[in-house]
Amino acid sequence: MIDHMWLEPNVVRDAVRDEVFFLDVSAVGEDARSLRIRADIAELLERPCVTDERDSTVRLMARPSVLESDEGFAIDVADGVTEITGNTTRALIYGFYDWMRRRMLGGTIDERIVSIPSQPIRMIDHWDQTDGSVERGYAGESIFFGRWNSNEHHEYLEFPERGDSDVFRGDMARIEAYARFLASVGINAVSLNNVNVRGVAIRLITHPWLDRVAQIARIFSEYAIDTYLSVNFAAPKIIGGLDTCDPLDPAVNAWWRRTVDDIYAMIPDFGGFVVKADSEGEPGPFSYGRDHADGANMFARALEPHGGRVIWRAFVYDCHMDWRDRTLDRARAAYDTFRPLDGRFEANAILQVKFGPIDFQPSEPLSPLIGAMRHTNLIVEFQITAEYLGHQIDVNYMLPQWLASLDTDTGYDADTAVTVPAYLPLAAVDRRNIGYAAVANIGMDDNWTGHKLAQANLYGYGRMCWDGSLTADAIAREWTSLTFARTDDEARETIEWMLDTSNATYESYVAPLGVGFMVKRENHYGVGVNDFEYDRWGTYHYSDRDGTGVDRTVATGTGYIGQYAPRIAAALEDAGTCPDDVLLFFHHVPYTHVLHSGKTVIQHIYDTHFAGVEAVDDYIRRWDGLRGRIDDATFENVAERLQRQRRNAIEWRDQINTYFHRMSGIPDSHGRSIHR
Ligand code: GCW
Question: Where is the signal peptide (predicted)?
Answer without folding.
Answer: none
